Predict the structure of Fe2OG dioxygenase domain-containing protein.
Amino acid sequence: MIDTETLADRGHIVAPSLLSAQECRTLAGWWSDAALFRKRIVMQRHGYGQGEYQYFTYPLPAEIQRLRETLYGPLAGIANRWNEVLGLEKRFPATLKQWLRDCHAAGQTRPTPLLLRYGAGDYNCLHRDLYGERVFPLQVAILLSEPQRDFEGGEFMLVEQRPRQQSRGEVVPLRQGDAVIFAVNERPAKGTRGWHRTAMRHGVSTLRRGERFTLGIIFHDAA
Ligand SMILES: O=C(O)CCC(=O)C(=O)O
Ligand SMILES: [Fe+2]
């Protein structure tokens, strides 16, 4: 179960061992199967960092579809409570199917789950995964490789930009199969005068050695 207090407090939470080592190897092995993907991005061509990622195409592989569906429900509950404390009207529907219908009606029709691959020297600049006006405020990244064995460096990072204060950075230690659930864009923060929003960005530090794969699950589709 998701510790919602910790998630709101820190803007992220780790779900240990969401996937087995075998599942991680299978998913990482999909990298070279071009038929599974709609688009490949070379990060250095866009100034996003260094490394590559590929967006899965619809229909998603059953494993990815299942993860996206089962994670959506509890995260929608949290997203709705976040909006409630922030005084925002928007509420997210109970199922992924309903939410995606909303995205598709707004012209965001392309799938966003992705596989990322980093080699030695690669990194992912701090960013937010926004793909249009429709934004689901939480997303999930699952580390498919084992730190120290498969790669060194390459740590998952979060930076919180607080209003009128200096930014705060955090490294999230992950092992193979662990999932980090984190705020896409903003999280609610309790200040002395009630709740406000703080801006979050995530990225990956430079790999010193080896190869690192990640599965990214984003819940809004892309325009
Ligand atoms: O490789 C990572 O850990 C970060 C992946 C990422 O940026 C994402 O899933 O949106
Ligand atoms: Fe990302």
Residues 62-86 form the longest helix (25 residues). The chain has one domain: 4-217.
